[in-house]
Amino acid sequence: MADSLETRVQQLEDDLGRVALLTRALMDAVLKKGVLTQIEIAEMMTKADMADGERDGKLDLRKLRQPPPGKI
Asked: Is the dihedral of CA 51, 53, 58, 64 positive or negative?
């Protein structure tokens, strides 16, 4: 039996919370150890933001899953 919409939303929220926690812990560690600066991280985020072809502060995973033109 398929999970209800409410159950799926709760699972996604839980998953997102864990990803946010991991991201925060990694950011804190990288900055504390001096591996990267906040400016370097911001620059990397801007570059990564364009991976899906649109600068909008997020990644569209559907676009990233599509093969590049000419690779089908």
From this structure: negative
The residues, any chain, with a CB within 8 Å of residue 56's CB and separated by 6 or more, are: 49
d(CA 44, CA 14): 26
Please write the tens of the pLDDT for every residue from 21-71. 999 999 999 999 999 999 999 999 999 999 999 999 999 988 888 876 776
CA atoms within 13 A of residue 69's CA, in its CB half-sphere: 1
Query: Dihedral, CA atoms, 8, 12, 17, 19, nearest 10 degrees?
Result: 150
Does the pLDDT value for residue 72 go beyond 70? Answer: no
